[in-house]
Write a structure and sequence with these properties.
single chain, binds FE2/S2 (inorganic) cluster, alpha+beta, two-stranded antiparallel sheet, binds iron/sulfur cluster, 5-stranded mixed beta sheet
């Protein structure tokens, strides 16, 4: 097939960027990485990009296609060629470009190491003196996080990192959850304290781009939600984000609604609420703020209270609850698609 690519070239010495177009013949099964190899071998040997495994394992070949992060060795070119599209290839975002499609991964690895991505001492001897046995239910909590190949595609797309480069970011936090959720790790509380600091979990804007772009299904945003749930379960709730989430739960439990009028005093405190009074009054004048008294109680508030108590009784208010919810949704989807109901938690 005849392939056309536009590639953003970056000359570090001259500090110049240029969009260059290449056209060449490639086999029908070619991936984007195969096409870059053809450009480098046959057209311009100075093109710089990273690669190693060619099979979505090493995480080296992250880059952007049409502004969205991809693994070059995963992306098949045939449908793109058939659509008559000429994709624009550029380096990943949120990391400094070194040359062409190669970025400096130092900030990425610094955050990775800040997570202490190894088991911390403190776990007891295994009951049988030989090995730690962990239930499948507990392993499911960190199953997705264990699939990460450190490619950086999530970091490339993270909106919070774009406005705050110090934000720990989706990759590092997913790695953190990998260890927070492991019952053998002895530093869970310290880890959660660290991740609740400035630039930590509550700075995520929940844009979900990291979930969308991760080529391995790690779903880093879900990992951050699990870290939030674990923090709350451990009573680490000093951050405004945590107070925000806590108020939503109280609000849903007591009235069945999200009482947003009370959100600011409950999360930011009375002083901040007074400072926002002018803004609140202008919203109220336009009918955007329902009066807090008497509170609006939903007709079937009993349902929301029952749900709250069920979760509490089952002790599922940490990451386990999130994973249980994911599996329940999958079971419902499976039943709807096939007409077969199952209690098998593995059913997809
Ligand atoms: S959901 Fe959060 S961590 Fe993920 S890309 Fe958006 S801001 Fe970043
Ligand atoms: S979470 Fe996904 S996108 Fe992010 S580094 Fe790991 S594998 Fe890559
Ligand atoms: S070359 Fe290893 S993931 Fe693409």
């Amino acid at each position: 097939m005849q392939v056309a690519l536009k590639i953003w070239r970056y000359d570090t010495k001259a500090g110049e960027r240029a969009l260059k177009e290449y056209e060449f013949d490639a086999p029908e099964e070619a991936t984007l990485l195969d096409c870059l190899d053809i450009v480098k071998d046959k057209i311009d040997g100075s093109l710089a990009y990273r690669k190693s495994c060619r099979m979505m394992i090493c995480g080296s070949c992250g880059m952007r296609m049409d502004g969205a992060a991809v693994l070059a060795c995963q992306k098949r070119m045939q449908p793109i060629v058939e659509a008559g599209h000429v994709p624009v290839i550029s380096a990943m975002g949120n990391l400094p470009i070194l040359k062409d499609l190669v970025v400096d991964m130092t900030p990425f690895w610094n955050k990775f190491w800040a997570m202490k991505p190894y088991m911390q001492p403190g776990y007891g001897e295994p009951a049988d003196g030989k090995e730690h046995i962990i239930s499948p239910e507990r392993m499911r909590v960190i199953h997705k996080e264990s699939l990460c190949i450190n490619c950086g595609c999530c970091v490339s797309e993270c909106n919070s990192m774009e406005s705050d480069p110090e934000f720990l970011g989706p990759h590092a936090l997913a790695k953190g959850m990998r260890f927070v959720g492991d019952p053998r790790d002895g530093a869970k509380l310290q880890r959660l304290e660290d991740y609740n600091s400035e630039h930590g979990i509550w700075d995520c804007t929940r844009c979900y781009f990291c979930n969308e772009r991760c080529p391995k299904g790690v779903d880093p945003r879900d990992a951050i939600a699990k870290l939030g749930a674990e923090s709350m379960a451990e009573g680490i709730n000093r951050d405004m984000g945590a107070k925000h989430a806590k108020w939503f739960v109280t609000s849903a439990k007591t009235t069945g609604w999200l009482r947003e009028t009370e959100l600011v005093p409950k999360t930011q405190g009375v002083v901040s609420a007074i400072k926002e009074m002018k803004f609140a009054l202008s919203l109220a004048r336009r009918g955007k703020v329902p009066l807090p008294f008497p509170p609006h109680v939903a007709e079937r508030v009993g349902e929301s209270r029952k749900l709250y108590h069920l979760v509490k009784e089952q002790g599922r208010d940490g990451a386990l609850g999130i994973v249980q919810g994911e599996h329940a949704l999958r079971r419902i989807e499976f039943a709807e698609q096939t007409g077969v109901t199952t209690s098998d938690p593995e059913a997809k």
